[in-house]
Amino acid sequence: MDFVAAQTRRRSQPTALAAALAIGLTMAAAGAAGAADDVIRVKLKSGRSFIAQIDPQSDADVLRLRFERDGVVIVRPIEWTSIVSASRNDAVVDLAALRVDLAARRVLAPPSNGQPHELPIGNQARASRGRVTLWKVPLDSVAASPPAEPVRSIAVDAYLANWDADVEVDGLVVDVEFRDAYGNPTTAEATFAAELVGERYPPLTRGNALPILGRWTKQVAGGEFIAPGIWRTRLEFQAVHPDYQLWLSRYGLVHARVLVPGQGTFEASVDGLALRGFTPVRDRTQAAFGTRFLPTEATGRGHRESAVGVW
Predict the structure, then answer these.
(1) Can you give the residue range of the structural domain that contains 181?
(2) Which of 101, 136, 171 lies at the terminal end of a domain, its last residue?
(3) Helices of type H across 38-138
(4) Are the beta carbons of 185 and 295 closer than 8 angstroms?
(5) H/E element holding 63?
(6) What is the mean pLDDT of residues 20-42?
(7) Does 232 reside within a domain?
(8) pLDDT at residue 128 is higher than 50
(9) pTM of the entire predicted model
(10) What confidence category does residue 214 fall into, taking pLDDT thresholds of 50, 70 and 90?
(11) Any idea what DSSP says for residue 185?
């Protein structure tokens, strides 16, 4: 009897080994198919889209996308409510069914024995060869923001500024404040137009007392607001420059016009704008030599041009 049992065990060993091998191959194939099936493309309400593998830690609250390259793994959690659509191999994925399926997988998944190493965002340390590094990415969700209140008025401020290496001023910095019906700051996509009006020293002729020194037109973009409701821009002096055309008086006026589509056109002006500021030494130099710059000063247009147009 013992001899027969031993022979039976010997004959069954190759069969068991073959069965185990078959099961292993089947599981490996299933794992590979699962990895391929888990590559998904999602489109968010913000307009962004991602193509990545679905991380096993996804659940009914968030979909976690897994990006892996050169030994570095990035897991990005995305709220289900911020996803517009999903597709896999150009086939549309039912988001509700996928959410339920991933929640079930999370419940049935065995607990992990170790936690991956986490690096803070912005850390550019490279992972060593053979080591998986997890980058922790904040939740990618669409924050609901209330719409801006309609624009009902604007306020304008302007001042001289120099933004290059020479000594003379280069133009004006203009701040436009958008206000709602209660005077509170608001924002809007708009078109900004401005003109700088100067004043000529006597003698005057018909039509030349208040010349236009420059005209500008720009688009107001949401990303250019420096503070709530305040948009800032630079207006570079054009052909006429107060420090070179000496027939100009010291003061000017900036007239601004803002066109907000669907809301109207709003205007404001800044009078008494000092085009030369307080310059006692330059004023005496101008009176004595017909130029406002000293010989040792570097200017952008040259000293000779500053003497053009002496009255």
Answers:
(1) 153-306
(2) 136
(3) 95-108
(4) no
(5) strand 62-69
(6) 52
(7) yes
(8) no
(9) 0.52
(10) very high
(11) B
Quote the tokens at residue 214.
């420059």
pLDDT range class, residue 183, cuts 50, 70, 90:
very high
How many whole angstroms separate alpha carbon 29 and alpha carbon 231?
59
* Residue position matching structure tokens 């001042």: 159
Q: Is the pLDDT reported for residue 253 higher than 50?
A: yes
pLDDT tens, position by position, 101-121: 888 877 665 554 444 444 444
Statement to judge: residues 117 and 177 lie in one domain: no
Token couple for 7: 């022979």
HSE of 197, CA atoms in CB hemisphere, 13 A: 12
Do 59 and 181 fall within a single domain?
A: no
List of residues 6+ apart from 63 with CB closer than 8 A: 42, 54, 77, 78, 79, 80, 83, 98, 99, 102
Give the dihedral of Cα atoms 301, 303, 306, 308; nearest 10 deg.
Answer: -110
Q: Is residue 18 part of a domain?
A: no
Tell me the two tokens of residue 196.
Answer: 């700088």
Q: Which of residues 177 and 165 earns the better pLDDT score? A: 177
pLDDT at residue 223 in the model: 63
Is residue 157 located within the same domain as residue 302?
yes
CATH of the domain at 46: 2.30.30
Buried b or exposed e, range 175-201, using 16+ CB within 10 angstroms: ebbbbbeeeeebbbebebbbbbbbbbe
Q: Tokens in use for 88?
A: 């896999």
CATH number of 298's domain: 2.60.40.10
Same domain, 227 and 92: no
Determine the number of helices (DSSP H) and then strands (DSSP E) in the chain: 4, 16
* C-alpha span between 208 and 199 (Å, rounded): 9
105 φ, ψ (degrees, to nearest 5): -60, -40
> Mean pLDDT, to the nearest integer, of 251-274?
95
Q: Is residue 166 part of a domain?
A: yes
